[in-house]
Amino acid sequence: MSVIERRNRPDSIDVLVVDDEEDIRELLELSLLRMGLACDAAGGVAEARERLAQRRYRLCLTDMRLPDGDGLELVEYIQGNLPGLPVAVITAYGSIETAIRALKLGAFDFVTKPVELKALRELVTHALKLEPRAAPLPPGRSLIGHSPAFEQLRAQIGKLARNQAPVFIRGESGTGKEVIARLIHGLGARAAGPFVPVNCGAISPDLMESELFGHRKGSFTGASSDKEGLFQAARGGTLFLDEVGELPLGMQVKLLRAIQERAVRPVGAHAEEPVDVRILSASHQDLSRLVADGKFRQDLYFRINVITLRVPPLRERAEDIPELAEHILARVAEREGGAPRRLSPDALAALRGHAFPGNVRELENLLERACALCEGETIGAADIDLQPADGLAPPPPEREAPVAEGGEESGDVSDDERQRILRALDETRWNRSAAARNLGMTLRQLRYRLQKWGLE
After folding, report:
1. Which of 240, 258, 306, 365 is least enclosed by beta carbons within 10 angstroms?
2. Per-residue confidence band for 442, with pLDDT thresholds at 50, 70 and 90
3. What is the pLDDT of residues 145-194, one digit of tens each?
4. Could you give the dihedral angle defined by the CA atoms of residues 159, 236, 172 and 135, in that order, rounded to the nearest 10 degrees?
């Protein structure tokens, strides 16, 4: 670092760099100075803790391997003691397992050395946009309900908004997966950027590559001009891939490369172009089951499923129905004019006893219909049509599949068993020994099944 650069060092110090290699510390310090940011440096976990106790920083960049510990210890320490401080892990020993662990512990991002200057700039820029404390939910995008399941979901959304990890939102149709994706985007560092939702099941397979990555003029019949894709449209923001399980296998390969390389190649172009996009995805389908059936790529599954957010169906949070109903009736009244209608006690009891296979969307439709048909200001039980439509019953509870001794099947291998095993592997990040323990079977039994299904 030159003398002039040191002399022009900003007065305020925003970043703490933790790395045991002096040349790396200097390189990062120089890069940050060129962004107008001064930094302190520490060579280990203990020194970093001392620095953090002495000064308030806006960002911490830490190496993974340190002489007196590792970067994950520092991530845990910051989450426990300085929860508003974003911390990113930079390492030369990156692996998907370590990245997942870091992100689950609360790291803002995880990048591997050598760090490109452009990637470092993007990381720092996004991190410094984070509010020091959890921001209030954007107007009109609040989650309605205070059941324990929803309170837990609300807390998870607040945490996930503060990092860059891909999130897979799993939930039945009508549970509000896109609303949750918008909240994660709106509360995060990319809130000023675009939020681009795309329903993967609604795009023609023939046009999907062009829609996602864009195309060049003349690349195919009808390509009369250059066109940007949805990835480029979401640059600096969030791309929400709804119903990602509907992607054809051929497109899954290209999506995987785009996510891994953070770059896309438009149809007809000769080179890739970088894109700075956070990926959120959702599906009402069980992706692990699609993987087992060979309908979804396992590598893409792990790439988009770094963190899973489960949205509970409405039947698991029936205590939220009165609050939801009040909100929906107020919205209907605002749209149509007049005072909001009320639910009679018997109508409310009927709603709370209903299974709601269509979830919140079904509740909205029921109340809109009741408002249209009822006479007076109070909606009675007779005004609500709770007859479930054929084929829309809630899914049955999962059954436990028997596991035979000695690794042999006790009968036909059921889909339920395969689903149960894949779920256990997913929960342990494919640590087979841990998954076998959780399943109550031997490692040999587990390997036997994986080999039989072509997953070993």
Report:
1. 365
2. low
3. 889 988 889 888 888 888 888 899 999 999 999 999 999 998 888 888 99
4. 30
- 1: pLDDT strictly greater than 70: no
Q: Cβ of 314: how many Cβ atoms within 10 Å?
A: 28
**pLDDT score, position 387:** 65
pLDDT digits (tens, 9 = 90+) for 214-269: 999 988 888 889 999 999 999 999 999 999 999 999 899 999 999 888 899 999 99
Q: For residue 135, is pLDDT > 90?
A: no
Mean pLDDT estimate for the chain: 83
Per-residue 3-state assignment (H helix, E strand, C coil) for the chain: CCHHHHHCCCCCEEEEEECCCHHHHHHHHHHHHCCCCEEEEECCHHHHHHHHHHCCCCEEEEECEECCEEHHHHHHHHHHHCCCCCEEEEECCCCHHHHHHHHHHCCCEEEECCCCHHHHHHHHHHHHCCCCCCCCCCCCCCCCCCCHHHHHHHHHHHHHCCCCCCEEEECCCCCCHHHHHHHHHHHCCCCCCCEEEEEHHHCCCCCHHHHHHCECCCCCCCCCCCECCHHHHCCCCEEEEECHHHCCHHHHHHHHHHHHHCEECCECCCCCEECCCEEEEEECCCHHHHHHCCCCCHHHHHHHCCEEEECCCHHHHHHHHHHHHHHHHHHHHHHHCCCCCEECHHHHHHHHCCCCCCHHHHHHHHHHHHHHHCCCCEECHHHCCCCCCCCCCCCCCCCCCCCCHHHCCCCCCCHHHHHHHHHHHHHCCCCHHHHHHHHCCCHHHHHHHHHHCCCC
